[in-house]
Prior knowledge:
By secondary structure, the chain is α/β, with parallel strands linked by helices. It has helices at residues 26-32, 71-75, 177-182, 219-230, 252-261, 290-296, 306-319, and strands spanning 3-10, 15-21, 50-55, 58-59, 78-80, 85-86, 90-94, 107-118, 122-129, 141-146, 151-156, 165-171, 190-197, 209-214, 237-243, 265-271, 299-304, 325-330, 339-340.
Amino acid sequence: MSSHTIALNFEDGVTRFIDCKSGEKLLDAAFRNRINLPMDCSDGVCGTCKCRAESGQYDLGNDYLEDALSEDEAAQGLVLTCQMVPSSDCVIHVPVTSISCKTAQQRFSATVAGVTQHNDAAVVLELDVDGPAPAFLPGQYVNIEVPGTGLSRAYSFSSAPGEGRISFLIKTIPGGLMSGWLARAKAGDRLSLTGPLGSFYLREARAPLLFLAGGTGLAPFLSMLEVLARAGSQQKVHLVYGVTRDLDLLLVGVLEAYAARLPDFRFTTVVADAASSHPRTGWVTQYMPEEMLRAANPDVYLCGPPPMVDAVRGYFGEAGITPNCFHYEKFTPNAPLKESA
Length: 341
């Protein structure tokens, strides 16, 4: 019997992936996978099981009351999981925490395959995962435990979902806990990871995409670009990649390769240091494609340090720009948790 993969993204950012058999209702599939999604009547009467379908194809049938799910709500992607029958892979936002649904984060182990230093700015960490390739949504992150400390740090995947070898772009922090460990890490070292996590991930592209990356905030966009390239996306994509110094400008060759693979992908690099010889100096907000913002009404994805995120949000407000969708994630290099919206 065929089945579909359903990503359940909970209010606390925890994501669980379950299989849903052909013709099976999502609520039943979740229970079969030992996840107690919200429910009361299970007959399409109360609306307690209402969630949002962010991508995928499905059938809602007509065996539910208007009071439980109105036509307007259904048109906006809201679903009753007690009635919804997926006909493809789907991403479902569940408006409660994972704990309330009696599920939790997933843990897995991996072995260091390589540690590549890029100037003094960042490290590319590659890991071979024990067992099946981890499932995640492009743009999400995991918590990686720093061996011997009992403490974890959060890093976005820079690799695409479905790969046994995963990668991360990690900022080098002098005196940093993870940076110190990476300086002496070697192939074969073992790591424990928890996740996937986060509400910052690529949604189904229905409009042009504007990606705004600051420093190692480039990582989730590399995952997104690989997914778009593999899907043969024809959507217009523009990435503005801002860094502080020339030495922080990393993996430009990788972006050039994506420009060759994706027919309508363009990227712009920006260095903040006024003394830089780079052709574009200043801030990301100075180099965003105005025509795209004003005329195309794009989906905007933003990942970078808090000052950059706040500056972009402030710029949009002052300029009266309201993107079609706006997803952002701000991070602090030493913080174990991330903030996203």
